[in-house]
Description:
It is built from 15 helices and 4 strands. Strands 1-2 form a two-stranded antiparallel ribbon. It has a two-stranded antiparallel sheet with strand order 3-4. It has helices at residues 3-35, 42-50, 56-59, 61-73, 75-84, 86-108, 113-140, 159-183, 186-213, 221-226, 230-234, 236-253, 260-280, 291-294, 298-325; strands at 144-145, 148-149, 283-285, 289-290. It is mainly alpha-helical. The protein is globular and about 55 Å long. It has one domain. Its main location: membrane.
Amino acid sequence: MDLQTVLPVIWFGVIGFGVLMYVLLDGFVLGLGILAPFAEDEAQLDHMMNTAAPIWDGNETWLVLGGAGLLAAFPKAYALLLSALYVPVLLMLIALIFRGVAFEFRFKARRAKRFWGAAFALGSMLAAFAQGVILGALVEGMPLEAGRYLGGAFGWFGPFPMLTGIAVLFGYALLGSTWLVLKTEGALQKNARVLTRPLVLVVVAFMGLVSAWLPFLDSRIMARWFEGANVLWLAPVPLLALANALLLWRAVMDQGRDARPFVLTLCFFALGFAGLVLGVWPNIVPPALTIWEAASPPSSQGFLLVGIAFLLPAILGYTWWSYSVFKGKVAADAGYH
């Protein structure tokens, strides 16, 4: 195989890894915002936000990596996705900025603390919903002809993207509640456990509903799963997801396991992401734009790969360092300055 064949595969893996890391790491912070209305008082919301205060902004590095990598390695796919999904992408970015400003301002505010708490919740909800809509529109497939997008500004709007938007909203809420189970004790942890149980059922139900909807889409995802012998070697993914869901429910019901619900929720998201990637492969924009058709020249991809060989270990290193430094439970009286 030559570089023109291999390099797009490597970059597809790099971008996919970056997106997955963003979903797993920033997902629980967005989940904290989604759960903010369930805080008993301002002090408890302080406690919730303090569990993520030292590490939340570093998580967004992965989103930048995924977006910049897509632009550099697959410019045609970047142009198509941005032109097709301009509205939900813009909504996501505005919501993330709003969430970030609210996160910082709330700890400094005196009179407007409740307002910034509401802004933190609203920004998190809108960002989560927009990300789900983008996912659903991508899975559903883009109307393409000769590599050009044929839809309008709202061509992404439809029942399936709305469903995936709501599903991701609840999924991030589950990540947030299990994170609180991991990082807190006392009344807040008890409240998080109470919220986690129905969230597990809702997220599993949405996963089943989305999977049941896939055969009715035109993005060829189900064809990938059932062509030839594919069903045999792809079957472990849904089976593992089902087993993971059962283990997650047992972990949630077990009061003595604080880390297990969060770890199993991360695994559930990773398995769902793996199923998505296997379904769309080798397309980067379903139903018909492959990674090789969308790729930049091998010389560009090779040059950029040298940079990512240094950048990716650095991001992984400081991510691991920040989480290891701030590991353990976060006390209710912990402060953020």
